[in-house]
Amino acid sequence: QIEADSLCARLTVPESRQRPGQRSIDLRVIVLPATGKTVQADPIVLLAGGPGQAAAELGPYFFTVFPELRKKRDILPIDQRGTGESNSMACEQELKPLQNFELSGVTATEYYIDALKQCLNSLDADPAQYTTPIAMDDLEYIREILGYPQLNLFGISYGTRAALVYLRRHPTSVRSMILDAVVPMDMLVPEHIATDAESAFATVIADCQAQPACDQAFPDIISKLETAVN
């Protein structure tokens, strides 16, 4: 829910800066004004995760959890191009069959690939123009339009990579960065999700079994999980 005192706008930019006379897209820009009496000139910009999460959906909730951050600085939850209301590239295809555990891995993969191809063909967009560097150039343009001297970047998950890309491309525009759950530049984001999740779960189980109180409260948790899944 966007707050009543928020400033909302749509900023039109070329989809391709190399072909500015062709297709244009709108970027959803929101400013949550600082609530205190003494306001600093540099705002906090929320860079959401995913990639694909819309910052405008996450921002208002996130900064109600940290109200102190908003007392002295404006908050900017901006939908990165391709997300939310900035020419979203979200797939509308039905993916529920992927949640059917009776499907074989091969069948699920084939269905997933076919659904993604359908999505790609239905997009009103050139996917080559929705990369992180291009999106961070959008952010620099927004900073210039709004007249902020510098930005404080708050990146979460994939947003940490976006922050690093912005810093590399526009170093003098960055005052500070907070990187939460860092995604390094050399990481292929989805490649290790399954193995990382399995490793994390195994670590939690091992920690629980090593603590008598936890082990007593949750006995045979692995076999119970396998029974529930099967």
Description:
- There is one protein chain.
- The chain has 230 residues and is an alpha/beta fold.
- The protein has eight helices and six strands.
- It has helices at residues 55-65, 67-72, 105-122, 132-146, 158-169, 193-209, 212-217, 221-229, and strands at 7-14, 24-31, 44-47, 75-77, 151-156, 174-180.
- The strands form two sheets. Strands 4-3-5-6 form a four-stranded parallel sheet, with helices on both faces.
- Strand 5 (151-156), helix 5 (158-169) and strand 6 form a beta-alpha-beta unit.
- The longest helix has 18 residues, at 105-122.
The rounded distance between the terminal residues' Cα atoms is: 39 Å
Structural class: alpha/beta
The CATH topology name of the largest domain reads Rossmann fold
Supply the number of structural domains.
3
Question: Using DSSP, what is the number of strands?
Answer: 6
Instruction: Please tell me what the overall shape is.
Output: globular
CATH homologous superfamily of the largest domain - what is it? Alpha/Beta hydrolase fold, catalytic domain
Q: Which strands sit side by side, in order, in the main sheet?
A: 4-3-5-6
The share of residues in extended strands comes to 15-25%
Summarize the main sheet: 4 strands, parallel
Task: Return the average pLDDT rounded to an integer.
Answer: 87
Uncertain regions spanning at least 5 consecutive residues: none
Strand/helix succession:
EEEHHEHHEHEHHH
Oligomer: single chain
Q: Total helix count?
A: 8
**Percent of residues in helical segments?**
40-55%
